[in-house]
Design goal:
The complex is a heterodimer of chains A (55) and B (807). By secondary structure, chain A is an all-alpha fold. Chain A has one domain. Chain A is built from three helices and no strands. Chain A is elongated, with a radius of gyration of 21 Å. Chain A starts with a helix and ends with a helix. Residues 48-55 of chain A have low confidence and may be disordered. Chain B has 807 residues and is of the alpha+beta class. In chain B, strands 16-28-27-26-17-24-25 form a seven-stranded mixed beta sheet, sandwiched between helices. Chain B has a six-stranded antiparallel beta sheet with strand order 8-7-9-15-10-13, with no helix packed on it. In chain B, helix 7 packs parallel to helix 10, helix 12 (421-444) packs antiparallel against helix 13 and helix 23 packs antiparallel against helix 24 (775-803). The chains are: A mainly alpha (55), B alpha+beta (807). Chain A binds chain B through residues 1, 4-5, 8, 11-12, 15-16, 18-19, 22-23, 26-27, 31-36, 39-40, 42-43, 46, 50, and chain B through 49, 52, 105, 108-109, 112, 126-130, 171, 174-175, 178-179, 182-183, 186, 189-190, 193-194, 206-207, 210, 213, 217.
């Protein structure tokens, strides 16, 4: 049954790593602006295209 | 808007901003523009190969305002720069501008690609919901002034004021709330997982060592929840106690505390599994409610004072030399220079030039006021027309308008006088539960001390008012969102409750009951032919005077003629010559040569524009403020339930007209100064009434602040509005009765959901009283009752709002 103890330890660690990821995301401001990134992601391709055009 | 929907198919829309082009003279690369400003922006973008701007959105541009060269001169001043920049090390600097004009994805694209227009910019990033752009740049290649000018020339006029740096506190608070939720959620999930053997009665099957291990793990997981995540409730309860109030957070604190202490006791003494899952779940749900409640309209500012509206700097003339200094360094006796469209920041005397002052931001009245040499000009007006020179006679903070902010009302903490529902309930509820718990304990005490303690804690846990603590944020938060969808933006969720409590409503007149832009225009005199009309329209088009503008917009379907010889006589009128004749528009004296009005004009408060075509006098247009559509019905509706008052800064000329609406003539006051308005509200409050103020201009700022709930009416919510609790878009003015009714219903919804949660409580209370309370019951009951209450309050408030015709 001691394997259960190991599994529980692992499961808590996995959950804790998600918690850390969440705290990090909040800390770096990823929850502050929830709209602009959704628009911005559509622009990024554009620059490369234009460079190609110029070549 | 009707401009865009115009039905003539020949109409040409500006390639940049989408407005109707008034003629076809402004063009470039077979594209038409409404003005040279728009064309210039297009040229800048075209040169830099940035025309993608036009592919992203449909006619995304903003027509840039006419700018004078010195507008951003003050950004060269080191002291000002220090206040505006968010970071600088001398070589690299960062600044965040508020850009109210941004409105679409094209704007984001352009603002984030500013480095292609100015090589000194190293980084630019838009926060669209806040309408902010953060720019980093190298000091050696560009300057703050240049960047501001670049933004301005593209039509994105940055709104710079020193107040703009004050909002950081709120985002930090929200961040902390997210941390707390994350931790509580993490603990909630894991404790529940570790409690499953307990729920399913499996603990007897397994090794008793597991039981012990799970208990200790649960305890470890619950520590950060108890000490960190729920700390806000302790602080709030303590704050309340110190002010001798028992607020809703006190019974919550009691519930959390009892849950924790009893679980601690059970785990340490191995008598049971504890209620750590319920505690973590309770804290988690409560915090989610807090986030839902903390929704704000970030691009809007509800705290504006005159400072966010006044310029930061002013041009001073000393011995013929012009320098730009920050407003704070302005002294009495200084000569200041105000150009077209600049705001007069201080009470002063007109020294040189023709004053033509537009006080629309102050009073809501849009027709400019003429001022002659030697006259006192009050701060807050905007000069329209030519340059003027003024002599300062008062300090900025002591001026007629700004002195209002020295009133005590503005120094007080922003706390409402009104008792909130949750605090009232909190008080009685706490008393009730503590008594009940004591009774339960007393009943069992003779039998067994252990059981008495068990019952005592179980009752406190069961009656924890978490359902109420959730029903309030979810109902008010949902109503706030419904209001937002209907163009009524409130500062926070508490405003819903204050709205429901209002007993008297005080209105401002100009700009609130009347339109500040739209005017009622009537013509009296000889009928004008189509030819005359097109002459008048063509000449009026040449002038920027608001009356000309109104006339131009009023005359539709007239052919525009080319005006050859246009003259503007400030304060008198305009004249113009076309190939088909001449037209003269202006004051009676200017047009007819006769001074003074002959007719009785006490009945209306209108401005008149006299017209002469080809030298013959034809009559006059009278242009007056028009009252908002549906005003009569709105007032009638409100009059049934509310005590209505009117405070106007204008003279009494419209008293008779307003008598139709306001039945009680004693409650209409005219010629009220900003200070008087504030005092009037205070007097009403001293009579024990809760007062709602509806106003629009800076002169209502004191009254809006003093009132229990202040609503500002705005033609365009992106524009300036004074400090208030809510901003209502003027097209929805007639929805005011519905808004008040919906906020009243919201209180009823909360009471109902409270009653529902009480039914759950009573059922379980019976179990608790018998001493049969188990962790599994708490673990099931708590989320079920909470979630059903949240669902009920959200669905019911949506339903009620729909029935009242809200979107």
């Amino acid at each position: 049954m001691s394997v259960v103890v190991v599994l529980i330890g692992v499961s808590v660690l996995v959950a804790a790593s998600f918690l850390v990821a969440f705290l990090w995301a909040v800390k770096t401001g990823q929850f502050e602006d929830k709209y602009t990134p959704s628009v911005r992601i559509l622009f990024d391709d554009d620059k490369k295209k234009e460079e190609k055009k110029n070549n | 808007m009707d401009k865009k929907e115009a039905n003539t198919p020949t109409e040409i829309l500006c390639y940049h901003c989408g407005d109707v082009c008034r003629d076809e003279t402004v063009r470039k690369d077979d594209k038409f523009f409404c003005c040279t400003g728009c064309k210039m922006v297009y040229e800048i973008l075209n040169e830099n190969d940035m025309c993608r701007y036009y592919d992203l959105g449909e006619k995304p541009g903003i027509s840039p305002a006419v700018r004078n060269k010195t507008k951003y001169e003050f950004l060269g001043d080191e002291q000002v720069k220090k206040q505006v920049l968010s970071f600088t090390d001398g070589r690299n600097s960062a600044v965040t501008f508020l850009v109210p004009q941004m409105h679409c994805s094209s704007c984001i694209w352009l603002l984030e690609n500013m480095n292609r227009l100015d090589a000194g910019i190293t980084y630019s990033r838009v926060d669209f919901p806040k309408k902010k752009v953060t720019i980093k740049y190298r000091e050696e290649n560009t300057s703050l002034k240049k960047i501001a000018e670049l933004l301005d020339s593209l039509g994105y006029e940055p709104s710079i004021n020193l107040d703009a740096t004050e909002k950081k506190v709120k985002s930090d608070h929200l961040k902390k709330l997210y941390y707390k939720i994350g931790i509580a959620g993490f603990a909630f999930g894991n404790i529940m997982l570790l409690s499953f053997p307990e729920y399913l009665g499996l603990e007897k099957l397994a090794d008793p060592g597991f039981h012990k291990l799970f208990g200790w793990l649960n305890l470890a997981l619950s520590l950060p929840v108890f000490f960190y995540s729920s700390s806000e409730y302790y602080l709030s309860a303590w704050k309340g106690l110190r002010n001798k109030v028992i607020n809703i957070d006190f019974p919550l604190f009691l519930g959390i505390l009892v849950l924790f202490v009893r679980s601690l006791y059970e785990i340490i003494l191995q008598t049971g599994a504890g209620y750590m899952d319920s505690m973590a779940g309770l804290v988690f749900l409560l915090l989610v409610g807090k986030v839902f409640q903390s929704k704000t309209y970030e691009s809007m500012n509800f705290e504006r004072t005159y400072k966010s509206y006044f310029p930061l700097s002013v041009t001073v003339s000393k011995g013929g030399e012009e320098t730009t200094i920050p407003l704070s360094r302005l002294n009495i006796g200084d000569r200041i220079i105000i150009r077209n469209n600049e705001i007069i920041p201080v009470d002063s005397i007109l020294f040189r030039g023709d004053g033509n002052i537009d006080y629309s931001f102050v009073t809501g009245e849009s027709s400019p006021v003429q001022k002659v040499l030697g006259e006192i000009i009050f701060a807050g007006g905007r000069q329209t027309g030519s340059l003027i020179e003024l002599e300062v006679i008062k300090n900025v903070s002591q001026s007629y308008l700004t002195a209002l902010w020295n009133n005590d009302t503005f120094k007080k903490e922003n706390e409402s006088r009104l008792q909130t529902f949750s605090n009232v309930v909190g008080k009685y509820f706490t008393l009730f539960t503590v008594i009940l718990a004591l009774v339960g304990a007393a009943y069992w005490l003779p039998e067994s001390g252990d059981k008495a303690l068990n019952v005592f804690t179980a009752i406190l846990i069961v009656t924890c008012p978490c359902a109420l603590a959730l029903a309030i944020p979810f109902t008010f938060g949902n109503i706030m969102r419904i209001f937002g969808r209907n163009n009524f933006y409130i500062k926070n969720t508490f405003v819903v409750e204050y709205l429901s409590k209002a007993g008297s409503i005080v209105f401002d007149k100009t700009g609130t009951l009347t339109h500040s832009k739209q005017a009622e225009i009537k013509f009296s005199g000889l009928p004008l032919s189509a030819h005359d009309l097109s002459l008048v329209k063509s000449v009026a088009r040449q002038s920027t005077h608001p009356l000309s503008r109104k006339l131009y917009d009023h005359i539709s379907n007239a052919k525009l003629l080319k005006v050859i010889d246009f003259k503007e006589f400030t304060g008198k009128g305009i004249s113009g010559k076309t190939e088909e004749g001449t037209a003269k528009l202006g004051s009676e004296e200017f047009v007819t040569g006769i001074h003074g009005r002959t007719e009785d004009f006490s009945q209306d408060n209108s401005s008149r524009v006299y017209i002469a075509v080809n030298g013959d006098y034809r009559g006059y247009f009278s242009i007056s403020n028009s009252y908002r559509e549906g005003l009569e019905k709105t007032i009638e509706e409100l009059e049934k339930n509310y005590d209505l008052h009117l405070l106007s800064g204008d003279n009494e000329s419209e008293r008779q007209y307003l008598n139709k609406y306001f039945k009680d003539p004693l409650q209409m006051y005219f010629k009220q100064s900003p200070e008087n308005k504030l005092k009037y509200i205070k007097a009403l409050q001293n009579e024990g009434l809760s007062v709602m103020m509806v106003g629009d201009g800076l002169n209502d700022a004191g009254a809006l602040k003093q009132s229990d709930v202040g609503i500002s009416i705005s033609e365009d919510v992106a524009n300036f509005s004074p400090a208030c609790d809510g901003i209502l878009e003027s097209v929805n003015f007639s929805r005011l009765p519905d808004i008040l009714k919906l906020s009243k219903s919201s209180i009823k919804i909360i009471i109902t959901s409270f009653a529902i949660s009480f039914i759950y409580n009573i059922i379980v209370l019976g179990i608790a009283f018998e001493g049969l309370f188990k962790p599994i019951i708490a673990a099931i009951l708590m989320p079920v009752s909470s979630i059903s209450v949240v669902l009920f309050s959200v669905l019911l408030s949506n339903f009620v709002a729909k029935r009242r015709g809200f979107k």
